Structures are given as structure tokens and as C-alpha cells.
Amino acid sequence: MDILVCLKRVPLAGGTLILTPDARDIETKHLGFGISPHEENAVEAGVQLVEQMGGTLTLLTLGPSDAEEQLRSQLAIGATRAVLIETDGQEWDPQGTAAALVEAIKAEETKFDLIIFGAESADSAGYQIHIRMAHALGLPIVTNVKSMKVENGTVSCDRVVANGREHYEAPLPAIITVRDGLNIPRYPSVPGRMQARKKTVEMKKTEARIPKLEKVTLALAPSKDKGAEILGKGADAVPALVEVLKQIGAF
Amino acid sequence: MILVLLDHDRGEIDPLSLRALTAARKLGQDVEAIVICSDGAALAAVAGEYGAKLLHVASHAAITDYTPMASGRALKELVEKLKPAAVLAAGSPRGNEQLAHLAAFLDIPMAAECSEITLGSPHHVLRARWAGNLIESANVHAELLIATVLSFSTEPESVNGAPATLAQFEPALEPADSVVKILSRDAGESKGGVTLNDAKVIVSGGRGVGGPDGFGNLEELAALLGGTVGCSRVVTSSGWRPHAEQVGQTGTKVAPDLYIAAGISGAMQHIAGMKNSKTIVVINTDPEAPILRYADYAIIGDLHQVIPALTSAIRQAKG
């Protein structure tokens, strides 16, 4: 089976974010880059399916030419080849991104049986590119998948919600978006890394589209220190906490 | 007029939808609501209470349960008929998904997770990005604004309105619209009883718990307070606890009355999922842990001593 996984290069930020002087982007001078958390699960799912059923795993991204770094590191996990749609480094809006990805998929000789996305990007959280692509490609789509199985031309998926699991199925070809917890992403092996250097990353260009969801500026969310009241150290502080819990009616 | 999609689980409303209704009312126009699936008609009273005069109910034989693409189709049909200025829904996985289907059908932009909306030409929104750590100011170039309302950004406000009048309609679905839907459910990983979404008290553990065994103490405390156990991402990726318990950007976003964070340093992705809790208590050995910035109260100390002592003190106080 032929699988496509769509990825996005994002800065790796765990602590405080800093903005560029024009307040349009995150200052990335001191940050490394990676892919969004759920996307590691997407690649792992693709690699596992190809191991089980044979076929190919293609990676696709839209971003600056530096995104080759992320594609190579995921090729080392076991993907077959990768395609990079090169932008000028500007962020594209969801409609423009979806249109460019659709164009690239339609231009492929391979007709993909399954297209996998991470459930949400770490940085923009637009929640729509995959759905727009499903509409443009005429494919069924299941989102937020936490476990999956491919059998007899059907992808069978579970979504975890607060009160349990919901079961969905879609006939292939289909699009799914997956969440952290679907599997445990493997680390690249040394031979995997060696092979990744020789694998093809095909560079493509496309016209930028005028954004309809137009970013003006970014601002840091106000996160003023709530000024926690330190009740004390260790178990000695427990009586003070019990008083607080009583006051707020916790018991 | 502003049209609000009310999301529901077999006739039971998603409380986040009431926040979306409240946000819609603040735009100063009439508000109408829509539910998908015939059992949504049960929502007329609550829709009215929160300010919707009319509740459109989209029923179709093919919509037996949550069917996101069909929701998009039904919304499209109603939007083309009623020509609202905006369509809003909760910024929940389902709210985002159903409105994205609408946006895809109409091929117009959608702004997800908005904390502020100004109608105009273009429309303007403030929306949350980077797990709520960044606010984007954005223009939306379309006649119809499609937007979801950031969870917990608006408190639901009742207007004590009379039950909404029901307006039933049957959307003209294409066969492809109902291919993907909920086919069945099971209790899965959830333990039954109190879930993260409706827990009033969450006792959450992180790396500092040290392993799966350490969670016994947290469970005992949570049970004593009538709550449930949550955890950070490192806990689920280490396989100490099931994924259903994960709080944060990649897990569940929660806002209980009391959130006790034990042994959690507070990566911004975790903070994103719990910072709206009413009272936050932190138990951590590190007085510099980033999560302290978000805490109301803190004990600097080892959770392995503090939690059992707290449990027995509460037990004693309860008598």
C-alpha cells in the first residue's frame, strides 16, 4: 500500500517564546527545529503499515528549503522518499497550504491509499488543512485517531474522548489525522540515517496565494505570575493546605 | 444574525457550546442555533436559556450519530438560506472539525480558537496559537465569518430566555457526506465514573511521581476529594498511565474547580491544558518550576511525603 504523510517544520520551544522585532514570527535564532508531536506518530504509523503490508511511504511538506532537515530525519525512520514544496519562508494560510498540497498530490504518479496527518500543528492550530484536502481530493476523512487498523481496504479507527472511545471506519483511499498515543515513535537507527542521506528529496515550487486568513501580528499571551502563595515546605505545610481546601469548599 | 452550532453527544449538550452562544450574543446581533441529528431537539430549552430564539434541527436518516461531513453540508444549506453574518462553534475538536467542513464546502477561510471577534470588512479576530501562548491578530477576508470560540475564553451567561422555537429541516446530503460517522462506542481506557472533562477536582502527576506505582497515592487523594487523576505527557509516553488521562495540548484541556499538580514542572503544552482551572495547587521540590507562575498555592516539597500526609489530614478533618 502507498502511504503519504504530511509534515510541518516547527521550532522546538518548551519554555518561553520570544517574537521577532516585527512581531510576525517567533524568534528562532536560538531554537532547534523539529516536527509537530503528533506527526512523529503519523510517520511511525506509515512505517509500520509498510513493514506489514509492503508498499511505499512518501513524506510531503510545504515550507522553507531548510525543511529538508526534517524530511531527512524522518526518512531515517524508514520513509521511502520525500517531496518539499518550497516557500519563501513566509507562513501560508490554511487555504493556500491545502491548495498547494493538493496540487502536489495530484501531480504524483503514485495514487496514495492512505494520507496521514498529525492531528494539529504545534504552532498554528488551524484545524482545517486536512479537511480542505479531503474535500478537494474527494476522500473520506477521520480525525484525531488514537488507534487504527487497515484491513480489507478499510481503515478502522478509534478516537478517544472523555467518556471512552468512538469507533469510525473509512474505505480506502482515505485521509486520517492521528494523535500522540497512537504508537511509540522509534528513533532512527545508524543504518537508517546513512540510507536517508541517499534518499531523494524532490524540491518543488509553487506560486504563493493571497492569504484569506491574514496574519497581522503576533503577541505573547498575557501570563502574568499569579504570585502563588507558598504554604511552606514538605509535609509541615499540609495543615495550611487543608485550610485552603476547606475554604474553597473542596471537601 | 449569528448562527451557532451547538454540539451534543446523543442529546446532551457540550457545555463549551454555551460559551460559543454567549460569545455570539456579545456581537450585538440576533442569535440562532443549529443542532445536527434529531436527538438534538432536546436542546431547545438550554439554547433558549442562553439566548437563541430559534433552534434549527437538521435531521436525516443517514445522520444517526456524529457525522462531521454531513454537519458541514447541513450548515452550508442553512447558511445559504439564512445568510448569517457569522457561524460560530466551540473551539473543541468537534466544533473545529464541523466548521472546517463548512469552510471547505464554501471554500472560504475559517479562524479557529478565537478569543475576540469583531465583525467588519474584513472581519478581525484574535486567535490562540502555540497552545495558547501566542495570540494572533488576523483579518478574515470573506463575507461570512466562520470562527470557533477558544475554550474557556468566555464564561457562559444565561439570559433566562424561553425555550427556543424548533425549526426542523432535512439537509440534502450527498452519499459521501455520511461515509464517516461514529459506528459504535465503548468505555475504552476510561475508568467510568468521573472523567477529566467533568471532574471538579483533578489530582495530576508528572515526572516527579517516579513511576506507575507512585500514582496509587494520587488516586487515593483524588477519590477522597471526589475527583479523578490526570497526568502530564511524559507520564503517558513512559507508559505509566493511559493516554486518556493526559492533560495538555496533546491531551485533554480541563478547567476544574481544583487542580493539584504534583511533580509537574510545567511545559507550556501542559500549562495550555490546565491554566483555566479555578484554583491551582502545586506540589513540587523545585521552587523555580515554571508551573509556579500559574499556581494559587504551592508547597515546596516531595510529593511522596506531602500527598500521603494531605490525604490523612483531609480524612481526619472530615471525621
Automatic annotation (TrEMBL), chain A:
Give every Electron transfer flavoprotein alpha/beta-subunit N-terminal domain span: 23-213
Gene Ontology molecular function: any one: electron transfer activity
What is the name of this protein? Unannotated protein
InterPro entries in the record, alphabetically?
Answer: ETF_a/b_N (IPR014730), ETF_b (IPR012255), Rossmann-like_a/b/a_fold (IPR014729)
- Pfam family membership, one: ETF
**Which PANTHER family does its entry note?**
ELECTRON TRANSFER FLAVOPROTEIN BETA-SUBUNIT
Q: Which residues form the signal peptide?
A: none
UniProtKB/TrEMBL annotation, chain B:
Q: Where is the Electron transfer flavoprotein alpha/beta-subunit N-terminal domain?
A: 2-182
| Chain ranges passing through the membrane | none
Biological processes per GO annotation: fatty acid beta-oxidation using acyl-CoA dehydrogenase
The cross-references to Pfam families, in alphabetical order and at most eight, read: ETF (PF01012), ETF_alpha (PF00766)
GO MF annotation terms: electron transfer activity; flavin adenine dinucleotide binding
What SMART domains is this protein classified in? ETF
Family to which the UniProt record says this protein belongs? Belongs to the ETF alpha-subunit/FixB family.
Q: What is this protein called?
A: Unannotated protein
Q: Which organism is it from?
A: freshwater metagenome
- Classification of source organism: unclassified sequences, metagenomes, ecological metagenomes
